[in-house]
Amino acid sequence: MDYFSLPGRWMYYCYFIQGRNFPCSLFFTGRFLSLLVFLHASVLHPDPCLSHPQPCHILARIGHTVRLGVLLPIRQPARVQNALNRALTGLKHQTGDGIPPLLPYNLTLEVVSRSPLGGDPSSMSSCVCQEMVARGVSGVLAFPRSPEELIHIHFLSSFLKIPFISLLEDLEPLRNKDKTSQSLRGKSEERERMRERAREREGRKE
């Protein structure tokens, strides 16, 4: 699992399939950067073209659809969905005269957005497998809200062999990790002080 951060409120976690290197290229800034990262990794990289059952020159003639799964958060899913719709609209408007299309080989993008019934691992797994993987998504955008959800998404990516990109708002999981490290460090320092006091008391008795 690799991650990179940008100025602002978002950090992007990228999960890579073992044996396949999906590069992350920063073409634009903004909240829809993760979508561009996914499209560059899954479509513009030569490996997906070679592994497709049809040659690329046929794809250029008949066209094809790339499906992107979006695992919406349980809280405020409409807010995330609206932001995603605005990002897709902005990407479509960027193509024009002299500007190459977002996807090569006449590929079209289809977004499959779903929200799990609950935050537990069972609900999340059912949503990803039954609502997204069954429809043939090439990758998934996720919005975990806790370290536990982030760990479960990493497990799904490893088990399903599908790239996941997790967007963490306000870096909450990292702050929780820092708090845990500080707590453990504080307990270690407290135990060391208690040992020093015990040695001082033993020295006074002698």
Automatic annotation (TrEMBL):
Sequence segments annotated as region (Disordered): 176-206
Source domain of life: Eukaryota
Name of the protein: Uncharacterized protein
UniProt source species: Umbra pygmaea (Eastern mudminnow)
